[in-house]
Write a structure and sequence with these properties.
globular; about 15% strand; Aspartate Aminotransferase, domain 2; 14 helices; 2 domains; seven-stranded mixed sheet; four-stranded antiparallel sheet; Aspartate Aminotransferase, domain 1; alpha/beta; single chain
Length: about 400
């Protein structure tokens, strides 16, 4: 047999990936790594990764892992260890979510894995999922990877990045299977009122939609903003609540998240079975990190001190707000939750600069890495996202460089 001409072969990636975007760790981030290899120091603000900015996981959580390492060597149940799932149940009950047991809790390798599993267990080819715009792009990507179509509903800056209920209603059709709600929101930092959430739930229940509540930033709110657990409002539909250790507990590397089924669970029997099947196929999630869950949820909540006036997260956010208020080049809807600011370039730059060109210039010539706003599936290209995790001195340096960059275009 004549050997094939290997030099002429080209292996293409899956066509499914054509609809997948994740620019937060995309070309700009790769270019930043190349610049670092050349000796440049890059201030990376593209990812909300607390550990990179000096935030430590609470010591009690680290000790809980260490003390249970002997029990962490075998595979555990596909849904997760019982103490972790029971701790999640207790948290949900304390928040007013009724009818949940450990059987409705799934522990995963971060919320990211659980988003993928829950969409895979739900979607058939062509099903549609309502996703906010701007969104956390993993949601749109995961819908596409699992054969669905992400349909974006508006959360415009002019409305304080609040969902447009009328637009949501117009977007629902016979193919719509679920709606995603990210609250507190990434990237905008918006926190939704009880009335807004109730309007979304009413629409979902009217049309029989599964409600997917991404609440990974649930306790990270500022200036008296109130976080309302979406599951407390759901009675006649199925609600999936996603959270984990990454953000509130500054334990991104532990890769521990959870997904809780609640609401009308009689409707979810087959769906939960599908999740069990997929969970079993991946055997189980990271076991050592699961031993930190009970300690994290049951003890002193150190996040409260960080988001209060004088706390580091609060003060860093305040610097961002003050710097934008003093700028002629930038605008900001004040973030009321999470660890990001979604900044808008002034209208004067509309003909000379878009978010991608600005982010590239800022990186190459001023050594600051940000995420272009269009990475978050927006129809506009005049925003960019930064994390508010750096200390206040670093943020002052960042804004000096941003303004130096923008001056040349003004």
């Amino acid at each position: 047999m004549k050997p094939s001409n290997s030099s002429a072969m080209h292996i293409n990636s899956s066509q499914v990936l054509q609809d997948v975007r994740y620019e937060i760790r995309g070309q700009l981030a790769n270019h930043a790594l190349e610049l670092e290899k050349r000796g440049y120091e890059i201030i990376s603000l593209n990812i909300g990764n607390p550990g990179l900015f000096g935030f430590r996981t609470p010591e009690t959580m680290r000790l809980a892992m260490i003390e249970n390492l002997g029990q962490a060597e075998p595979y555990c149940h596909q849904k997760g260890i019982f103490p972790a799932r029971e701790a999640v149940v207790m948290q949900q009950q304390n928040r007013g979510v009724e009818g949940v047991s450990a059987e409705e809790v799934f522990i995963g390798n971060g919320v990211s894995e659980l988003i993928d599993l829950s969409l895979r267990a739900l979607l058939n080819p062509g099903d549609e999922v309502l996703v906010p715009s701007p969104d956390y792009p993993l949601w749109s990507a995961a819908v596409a990877l699992n054969g669905g179509k992400a349909v974006h509903y508006r959360c415009d800056a002019q409305r304080g990045f609040q969902p447009d209920i009328a637009h949501i209603e117009r977007s629902i059709n016979s193919k719509t299977k679920a709606i995603v709600v990210i609250n507190p929101n990434n990237p905008s930092g918006a926190v939704y009122s009880r009335e807004m959430l109730q309007s979304i739930v009413s629409l979902a229940e009217l049309h029989g939609l599964v409600i997917m509540a991404d609440e990974i930033y649930d306790q990270m709110v500022y200036d008296g903003a109130e976080f309302i657990p979406l599951a407390t409002l759901v009675t006649n539909s199925v609600c999936l609540t996603y959270s984990g250790l990454s953000k509130i507990y500054r334990a991104c590397g532990y890769r521990v998240g959870w997904c809780v089924f609640s609401g009308d669970l009689d409707k979810a029997t087959d769906y939960i079975h599908g999740m069990e099947l997929l969970s079993a196929l991946r055997l189980c999630s990271n076991v050592p990190g699961q031993w930190a869950v009970q300690t994290a949820l049951g003890g002193f909540q150190s996040i409260n001190q960080l988001v209060e006036p004088g706390g580091r997260l609060y003060q860093s956010r305040q610097v961002v707000i003050e710097q934008v208020d003093a700028s002629d080049y930038l605008h900001l809807e004040r973030p009321m939750g999470a660890m990001y600011a979604f900044l808008r370039l002034d209208e004067r730059f509309s003909k000379s600069l878009d978010d991608q060109a600005f982010a590239l210039d800022l990186l190459e010539n001023h050594h600051v890495l940000v995420a272009p706003g269009s990475s978050f599936n927006t129809p506009y290209n005049d925003h960019f996202r930064i994390t508010t995790l750096p200390d206040t001195d670093t943020l002052h340096v960042v804004f000096e460089r941003i303004h130096t960059c923008l001056e040349q275009y003004s």
